[in-house]
Design a protein that fits this description.
Blueprint (H helix, E strand, L loop, with lengths): L1 E2 L5 H15 L1 H12 L13 H8 L3 H13 L3 E8 L2 E8 L5 H6 L1 H23 L16 H4 L4 H5 L3 H9 L13 H5 L2 H7 L7 H6 L1 H11 L3 H10 L1 E2 L4 E2 L1 H13 L18 H6 L4 H10 L4 H11 L6 H13 L4 H14 L7 H13 L5 H11 L36 H21 L1
Helix pairs in contact: 1-2, 1-6, 2-4, 11-14, 13-19, 17-20, 18-20, 20-22
């Protein structure tokens, strides 16, 4: 374990108040534990087994893996691995959390925090970390500078010692870049062309840059082109303030896509990009499988879900849009894989709506199996439904023989029990009384 940035007690406050609601207590504990376990100059001999971490945190390996992914997604951790003859080992590089001003300017982080803690708590946290500039009105500054207070030997300044020069060169190494994910949306969205379309609108570039991630998320989630996005932005501007109304922007897009009902399957004719039809056939994919893979690459997740729901006579609920938006924001899968996941839940599992917990469960499993393409996602589904072979291997030791009771065995006949004369007379007397009672009631 090592660190790429200096970590301070203020960073601990930022982690506690701003990041912990996003990552959860287990991931928070993992980060703090890694922080305390940092070795200044790590060597191979300093490595420790993962069981040490698991024991310290009192968690199992799946919980550890899920927490590690959360730290990576939040830009707090980079993970490296290497395989040597002695085995495989991991190196965890810690990163300091973003400063509060950068955190609240980040659309994804601030939105996630808002969802996690609610509006009231969000405003409390915003006020807690807001810097308040001292009002300089009617004040006279009397601050002293460095040389007013400290005396430095001018001869040493002209000819600094060799140790100073060496130290200076060592600390000129650039600070490590914070982990970032170049998303599928970033690659497919022409940002400069999009901004050109906004020249005639009242929105300035600063507002667009502040909502950079939100715009890309909407582009990936709904498959909105640059021209369409510019139109949505233009319609979401508050004419009184010339400010972009983010809430109205999100609602406008959601409302527009809920109202669409004329989607076609024309796009499905496009051939898959990664593998040819023959290669897919050799890999065991049927013609219908290949068609589904092709379709998965052509639609955004919301469009794809709309298509499936319309085929079944249903509609996309707003809760399902939020489920998809959360998954897209994580930037762990391309749209094509998300679409295969949607198809699996709606068409294969016959679920009426997308369920957040079930989707997270399947997505985590696919991440652990390194699923990055629709072909790999289809293979995961097929593997799950493959008939399981029943092991015929006998276990050692004595075998317990279960014997069926006599009444359950074939050819069983109930034995005739011996009845005494007194019992037979009592039975006849009871039957005669029942007959008399029945006649009296008729």
């Amino acid at each position: 374990m090592t660190k790429a940035n200096y970590l301070s007690d203020f960073d601990r406050q930022i982690l506690t108040y701003l990041y912990q609601p996003l990552m959860g207590v287990t991931a928070f504990s993992l980060f703090l534990t890694l922080w305390t376990e940092i070795v200044p100059n790590p060597l191979l001999s300093d490595q420790k087994p993962h069981t040490t971490l698991l024991a310290l945190l009192n968690i199992d390996l799946p919980d550890f893996y899920d927490s590690r992914l959360r730290l990576e997604a939040l830009g707090l951790l980079k993970t490296y691995t290497r395989t040597v003859p002695e085995g495989r080992y991991f190196v965890y590089e810690l990163y300091a959390p973003q400063a509060p001003n950068a955190f609240f300017k980040d659309d994804l982080l601030s939105l996630l925090l808002y969802e996690a803690v609610g509006e009231e708590r969000f405003n409390v946290l915003k006020d807690k970390f807001r810097l308040r500039v001292v009002s300089k009105k009617d004040l006279t500054e009397i601050t002293k500078n460095f040389l007013d207070v400290f005396h430095v030997n001018s001869a040493l300044l002209d000819n600094p010692p060799a140790t100073i020069a060496e130290t200076k060169s060592e600390f000129q190494v650039k600070s490590a870049n914070r982990p970032s994910v170049t998303s599928e949306a970033e690659q497919s969205f022409d940002w400069s062309f999009f901004k050109q379309q906004l020249k005639s609108s009242f929105v300035d570039d600063k507002q667009i840059d502040e909502n950079h991630q939100l715009i890309l998320t909407m582009h990936q989630l709904y498959g909105i082109s640059e021209l369409e996005m510019a139109q949505y932005i233009g319609e979401s501007v508050n004419v009184a303030t010339n400010q972009l109304d983010v809430k109205a922007f999100r609602q406008l897009i959601a409302r527009q896509f809920r109202g669409q009902s004329n989607l076609t399957t024309e796009k499905a004719a496009v051939a898959p990009k990664n593998l040819s039809s023959q290669e897919l056939k050799k890999a065991g994919f049927s013609a219908s499988d290949q068609k589904l893979i092709a379709v998965s690459r052509q639609y955004s997740p919301v469009e794809f879900l709309q298509q499936l729901k319309q085929q079944q006579g249903g509609y996309v609920a707003s809760s399902e849009e939020r489920v998809l938006e959360r998954l897209v924001k994580r930037q762990v899968f391309p749209n094509s894989v998300i679409n295969i996941l949607i198809h699996y839940m709606i068409n294969v599992r016959k679920m009426p709506t997308l369920n957040q917990s079930y989707l997270d469960s399947v997505a985590n499993g696919w991440l652990q199996h390194h699923v990055t393409t629709p072909e790999a996602a289809m293979s995961e589904v097929k593997e799950f439904y493959k008939p399981k072979k029943v092991s015929k291997k006998r276990t050692r030791g004595t075998t317990r023989q279960e014997t069926l009771p006599e009444w359950a065995q074939e050819g069983f006949k109930a034995p005739k029990e011996a009845v005494s004369n007194e019992q037979e007379l009592a039975l006849q007397k009871s039957l005669k009384a029942l007959k008399t009672l029945r006649k009296g009631g008729e």
